[in-house]
Amino acid sequence: MADSSDVLLDLWKDQRAQMRQLENQRATLTNIVILVVAAGLGLTTQRGLGPSMLVVTFPMALLGLYGALACMKYRERHALHDAQALSIRKRLNDLYPSLAIDSEWADTYLRQQARFPKLYRLRLYALWVALHLGVVSLGVVLSVWSLL
Length: 148
What we know:
Layout: H1 4-47, H2 54-95, H3 101-115, H4 117-121, H5 124-147
């Protein structure tokens, strides 16, 4: 029978795998959004902007909005799995205090923060949300321009 540290390690690995899966899903969604928007832009460039292109530009804005909301939801789920992995890591640290797991991780974060002080504060999910909000803005601007 496995001891408690083996069980905790398996649970920790599962949480990390869930986090990777969420990131893969976010990446796939973003790739789809970019591909569809690129096709829409190609179509509008080829045919020109006019009221008939609202069937392309308006859904482009909606797709960007969906992508932004999905990225925020992926971030929420990622935070959940990260919190669960952190609590499991703390239990492992309690079982094996001589490994100094928490202090080593804290030192690594401090070194990273000192090396990249401005980038450290920038949240990656915020960049992905901003990308999708850019798609929303593009869709809205093109829709308004199509009406003019």
